[in-house]
Amino acid sequence: MPVLQRFAASRILLYAGDHLLPHVHVRLGAGRECTVDIETLRIKGRIAAREIREELDWIASNRIPLLAEWRRYNP
Predict the structure, then answer these.
(1) Domain limits for position 58
(2) How many domains does the chain have?
């Protein structure tokens, strides 16, 4: 489970052998976590977009390398 990016209050992670569609996990403090679809930025979980605005911007700016990494870990 590589950490792709660290922020002050969160981390963006990628799990190997994970389910489809290409996504990343955003883990906040206290163990709160959601998934974000790399292509659509759709959030699954109980975290509001306003809580992870910086993370969503980073994911949007890094879509192509994130998709490549997701495919590498989830062939």
Answers:
(1) 3-73
(2) 1
